[in-house]
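Researcher: Let's do a round of design. I'm pasting the structure tokens now; please hold your answer until I've finished.
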């Protein structure tokens, strides 16, 4: 679902375990209030909530948000259509997530290689 052309305009996902809503907002190009709204609309999106009801997103959440963003903003789906697409394509979603993770790891490894060559 997340095509390479869409991925190029978004920054690489750092190798962290948890991300704040502000960090996810920057990584996905979506404002924080939109992320909160999407949590209500997409059951697949469940960030961990800790003290003070603060949200902490994991890597798979960030990838899911990028997929939702792609469906809504680039592919022109409605919220309902995107929700149906994500719930109906669970197997494709898993494959797409794995492919995205592999692409992301490749980018990070290439960046690391460039740093080591210096």
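Researcher: That's everything. Go ahead.
Model: Designed sequence:
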């Amino acid at each position: 679902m997340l095509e390479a052309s869409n991925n190029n305009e978004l920054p690489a996902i750092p190798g962290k375990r948890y991300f704040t809503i502000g960090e996810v907002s920057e990584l996905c190009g979506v404002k924080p209030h939109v992320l909160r709204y999407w949590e209500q609309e997409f059951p697949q999106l469940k960030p961990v909530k800790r003290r003070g009801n603060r949200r902490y997103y994991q890597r798979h959440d960030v990838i899911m948000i990028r997929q939702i963003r792609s469906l809504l903003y680039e592919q022109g789906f409605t919220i309902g259509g995107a929700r149906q697409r994500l719930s109906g394509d669970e197997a494709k979603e898993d494959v797409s997530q794995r492919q995205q993770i592999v692409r992301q790891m490749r980018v990070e490894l290439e960046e690391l290689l460039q740093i080591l060559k210096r």
